[in-house]
Design brief:
The protein is mostly helical. It is built from 13 helices and no strands.
Length: 335
Amino acid sequence: MDLDVFVHTHRTEWDRLDHLLHRGRRLTGAEADELVDLYQRTATHLSLIQSSAPDPLLMARLTQLVARARSTVTGTRRASWRDAVHFLTAGFPAAVYRSRHWWIPTAVLSALLAALMGWWIGTHPEVQAAIAAPEDLRRLTSPGGEYETYYSSHPAASFAAQVWTNNAQAAAMCLVLGAFLCVPVIWILFVNVLNLAVGIGLMSSAGRLDTFLGLILPHGLLELTAVFVAAGTGLRLGWTVIDPGPHTRRTALAQQGRAAIGMAIGLALVLFVSGVIEGFVTPSDLPTWARIAIGIAAELGFLAYVYILGGRAARAGDAGDIAAGERSAELPVAA
């Protein structure tokens, strides 16, 4: 493309669009139609320049023109309660459902690794000695020890809020840091798996694995599922950097990034539920079977929510992204 010739040919159209935009609402019907036509042409010009002759100054000018024209043509859109309902009933579960090929293997591999490491810690006294001194281990694992009193060490409401905040931060870090080629996500996931494995190993070596599971399972099923969803989504985002698929890397990252932001909001709500269970159910006087049953019910409810509502929305084309009409227009790019 000869950029000088291109600019000379289309400069009048761009100037005319700028003039119409400055007139704002004082346009006739014919001028409004002309503005829409010029907006579409200028958006096409911008795409051609980006792919063929990316001049920074010209791209900056046309980007600003297109953005202003888009705002004028489409108007300012405000979020409504319908958006919130759609997000909760379709957007978020669809995003979780569509990323299941990432978070389900993440969950399975993490659970297997936690069980293997827990067995290794529980059957090797020298490993336990490297973790803590014998008296410290007894203080952790004995009846009424720190593993048990941890869940009742603070008032239930403040404890639930603290747990929710910590878990939401971990999930958000997995989602945000996934773009760094997956490495931070793998590290965060490993730390969580290691903490779980240490608890399994130490309590099993003390013959109190049933007590540990009775404390972990009520809230841990839903909490760990949320962490695995966040980690799987973060890994998917990181892999998009490596292999963007049929889209440009910028477009693919934008799509996955927007879905990840929505996922962070949705998972914060899921982790709020697990935090409430951890604060009020786990340390309660309910029988162990009742506490575990509540945890299983919460987990099954979340999976049904994802596979029923999310599956239906995903099959209808919802990807957890913003509406197609609100995304930047794209043109095919030659390979």
